[in-house]
Design a protein that fits this description.
Layout: H1 2-28, H2 34-39, H3 45-55, H4 61-73, H5 87-122, H6 127-141, H7 144-158, H8 170-200, H9 203-210, H10 215-252, H11 258-268, H12 271-299, H13 302-305
């Protein structure tokens, strides 16, 4: 297991380097001049040039990338062009809010998605299956921003049950987490259903039934446990998707997290903040994939041998 862990960890390094290059170049293609935004509309060309020089934007792109990577290795992400404060400080203020939102979304989407998936798979081609898959298709098809606006209109405005916008309490998490987790719950439900149906066809399930085991015991002891092997992978990938998807949801609910911070930074052409946030979102994906691979290998040792 240790050898497999080291091998996977080393494979992550070139991935991270490629991501950092891609993110750095991508940010440079965003239209607009950050030096002009910092200088203000009344600044002269000389003032703009001075600011561009102070920010290092007049250097060749390769030199800018080297400076950025050297800063990262020292734990320095630079200063925000908008607030003039360290990027790490700004991200630290909002990081836990996004983590809370993501964890809450994943929690209920896994709970609900697995339940619907098992329920549908067990009752394949019956009304329960059709009802469950109708939910799944609806969850995938409905745009998250539209679902968020509907929830705000009905639950927050008309029924006055929950706050419409903001962050800071559990009540502020409910509507955004439902909005963010709806499509993930649908994907997990569909995947769990397929996995349950596949496992139900296995010979050892027929053997278990032939031995006279009760259907519920066959389902939860043999079918459920074996079908969850592949569902773990999907859940891990969806966790990364939730982090990235928080950009839209946080904007709809004016939730103070990394997603809304990214939107503000793009509007201001805040290069250091944008590239640091995108890099953090990407690193989450990489690390979650690594964690999922390790969990998968722990559950199925044959993977380590392969």
């Amino acid at each position: 297991m240790l050898r497999y862990f080291i091998k996977r960890l080393l494979a992550v390094i070139p991935t991270i380097i490629l991501i950092s290059i891609f993110v750095f170049m991508f940010v440079r293609f965003i239209p607009g001049d950050p030096a002009r935004r910092v200088a203000g509309p009344d600044a002269t060309l000389e003032d703009v040039e001075m600011i561009r020089e102070s920010l290092g934007l007049n250097k060749p792109v390769i030199d800018q990338y080297k400076d950025y990577m050297l800063g990262l290795l020292k734990g320095d992400m630079g200063d925000s062009l908008k607030t003039k404060r360290p990027v790490s400080y700004e991200i630290g203020l909002r990081y836990m809010n996004t983590v809370k939102l993501t964890v809450a979304s994943l929690f209920w989407s896994v709970l609900f998605g697995v339940f619907i998936g098992v329920f549908s798979g067990k009752n394949r081609s019956k009304w329960q299956d059709y009802a469950g898959m109708t939910f799944a298709v609806s969850g995938i098809s409905i745009p998250s921003f539209w679902l968020g606006l509907i929830l705000i209109d009905i639950i927050a405005v008309k029924l006055n049950l929950l706050p419409t916008v903001g962050s800071g309490s559990i009540k502020h998490l409910i509507l955004p987490s439902i909005t963010l987790g709806a499509s993930v719950a649908a994907i997990i439900a569909r995947f769990t259903r397929s996995s349950i149906i596949e496992v139900l066809k296995e010979d050892y399930i027929r053997t278990a039934r032939a031995k006279g085991l009760k259907e519920n015991k066959v389902l939860w002891k043999h079918v459920f446990r074996n079908s969850m092997m592949s569902v773990v992978t999907v859940v891990g990938l969806q966790f990364g998707f939730l982090l990235g998807g928080s950009v839209v949801t946080e904007s709809v609910f004016a939730y103070s997290g990394l997603g809304s911070l990214l939107i503000d930074s793009v509007n201001f052409r805040d290069y250091p903040m944008i590239q640091s946030l995108i890099l953090i979102f990407s690193l989450h994906f990489v690390l979650i994939n690594l964690l999922v691979d390790l969990i998968y290998a722990a559950l199925n040792p044959e993977i380590q041998l392969q």
